[in-house]
Amino acid sequence: PHILPIAKRGEPILQQRAHTVSNVHDPAIQQLIDNMLATMLAANGVGIAAPQVFSPLRIIIVASRPNQRYPDAPLMEPLALVNPEILWRSAETSLYDEGCLSVPDTRVPMERAEQLQVRYLTRDGQAVETRYHGFIARIIQHEYDHIEGILIQP
Ligand SMILES: O=C(NO)N[C@@H](Cc1ccccc1)C(=O)O
Ligand SMILES: [Zn+2]
What we know:
Elements (H helix, E strand, L loop, with lengths): L26 H16 L4 E3 L9 E4 L16 E11 L3 E8 L2 E11 L1 E7 L5 E7 H14 L7
Antiparallel strand pairs: 1-2, 2-3, 3-6, 4-5, 6-7
């Protein structure tokens, strides 16, 4: 896998709605997913969205793990969500200072739903519906904003 350049705030691609992936089995899509993960890990991230590596596609990676940027983050297997749809968000919300790889050296207090229900394709093409809560639900909402062209604002 390759470590790709990360688009920074001001790049037009970060303000555009990304496009649905038509064939998750396309080798180029599989390589993009690998490259997104490698790029996120190299930047000590816990999530990343395809527009951040200049691909206007509806692919996000959620990979929470404790690290120096988020010492109390839960540990999970890195997960790629292709064409994610948020089916439901809890009324209950929580506040947290979020970072963004596209907005370096900045933390922004963001209010997010505490729980959500997501439908997505796995990288193997399986359609799944799952409920998440807490920090992982937060990362999903942050990444989903990216594929909608929404950035946290310092
Ligand atoms: O920029 C990204 N993802 O788009 N990466 C963020 C993800 C994130 C989201 C929400 C809360 C904490 C962290 C990061 O700091 O690793
Ligand atoms: Zn971000």
